[in-house]
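Entry type: protein chain
Record version: 2
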Amino acid sequence: MEDRVQKAIDKIQPALGVNAVELVDVSNGTVKVRVIASTCAVGMPRETIVALLEEQITEDIPEVKEVVAVD
């Protein structure tokens, strides 16, 4: 499933203006990602980026229940 999640991240990442979204873990329907703050689009909070990632990932992979950011 990690490959599918990474493809979903790669698909939306350019639209976010984010250069660094790192897939940390996928387990029990939860995807953990690390968003490098210094690469976030100006004015876009990390929470917004994670919400948009979650929307894309759950659309592409319905068995994913949530996406959470980790430090």
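Comment: The chain has a mean pLDDT of 86.
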